[in-house]
Amino acid sequence: MIRSDQPFALYEKIKQSVLRDIESGKLNPDDKVLSETKLAKNFNASRMTANRALKELTEEGRIVRIQGIGTFVARPKPDAALLEIKSIAKEIAGWGGIHSSEILVLKKEKITEIIGQKMNLKLDDTIFHSIIVHKDREVPVQYSERFINPEVAPHYLKQDFKKITPSDYLLSVAPVQEAEHIIEAVNINSQIQKLLKIKPDEPCLSLKRRTWSFDMVATYSIIISPGSRYKLVGKFMRG
Fold first, then answer.
1. Which of 83, 84, 63 is nearest to 72 (CA)?
2. CB 123 within 8 A of CB 215
3. Rounded to an integer, what distance in angstroms lies between the CA atom of residue 188 and that of residue 199?
4. In sequence order, what are the beta bridge partners of 136?
5. What is the pLDDT of residues 94-119, one digit of tens each?
6. pLDDT over threshold 70, residue 229
7. What CATH number corresponds to the domain at position 101?
8. For residues 49 and 31, what is the distance between their CA atoms, to the nearest angstrom?
9. Which of 187, 186, 153 lies closest to 168 in space, CA to CA?
10. Edge-to-edge strand ranges of the sheet holding 63-66
């Protein structure tokens, strides 16, 4: 029998208390959960004991811990389009979220050898480059880096991507003839970890996508999402 004064019993008590608040509706998705310090004080436990309870709840997908912001009740993980090219803003709206974005890079630059090979362009060509972090209720859910062939979207750099997403704009001016997707689990560098506000050991999904329009490679994109906040689902229908 586990005595009530043992650390394991305290950690279980904290964990079950948080679960009861979630399942009863006292805490709803996106609501903030008490901090380790407050939970430890309320249950007369150590911070290590409270941390263990919150860590397991995080691993079970019941809460989300965002470095420097706090701990929140997790919402059901949304399905994100894979084969269908769809605006992240529409995906976020579809699962009841509120989209916002942080534009980090939006410029014309000389093409590199690697990107030139991906897009069938020469080294002396120029290319449009954008990096945007998409958020749901200010929580980062996607790092999106795009390289755009200026021939298919010459006015790309003039767009206000806080009002329209790159996907919506590109689909309006360069309808997709063909798309290629490569998906893998990745370890990301510290810079992207900081932008997504995740810990170094947080698993992430990487989607590398090439699209073709007007019989040429139109875009090459690198899209990275924290595994705890986003999942990709593919659906193919034969006409």
1. 63
2. no
3. 10
4. 99, 139
5. 888 899 999 999 999 999 999 999 99
6. no
7. 3.40.1410.10
8. 22
9. 153
10. 32-33, 70-73, 63-66
Residue 61 has pLDDT above 70, yes or no: yes
In this prediction, residue 96 carries a pLDDT of: 84
Task: Name the residue range of residue 54's domain.
Answer: 7-73
Dist CA 230 CA 182 (whole Å): 17
Question: Does 60 share its domain with 90?
Answer: no
Q: Is 128 exposed, middle or buried (0-12, 13-18, 19+ CB in 10 A)?
A: buried
Of 3-12, 190-199, 210-219, give the lowest mean pLDDT range. 3-12
Q: Which structure tokens are listed for 99?
A: 């989209």
Q: Judge if 114 and 223 occupy the same domain.
A: yes
Q: Which amino acid is at 60?
A: E
Total structural domains within the chain: 2
Residue 52 lies in a domain: yes
Burial of 106 (0-12, 13-18, 19+ CB in 10 A): middle
The residues that bridge with 231 in the sheet, in sequence order, are 79
Coil, helix or strand for 100?
A: strand
Give the closest residue to 19 by CA, choosing from 67, 74, 88, 97: 74
| C-alpha–C-alpha distance, residues 150 and 207, integer Å | 22
- For 66, phi then psi, to 5°, come to -115, 120
Owner of token pair 């290319």: 127
Tokens representing residue 10 in the block: 């305290």
| Residue range 175-208, pLDDT digits in tens | 888 888 888 888 889 999 999 998 888 888 898 9
pTM of the model: 0.64
Nearest CA-CA partner of 201 in 106, 59, 94: 59
Residue 80's SS3 state is strand
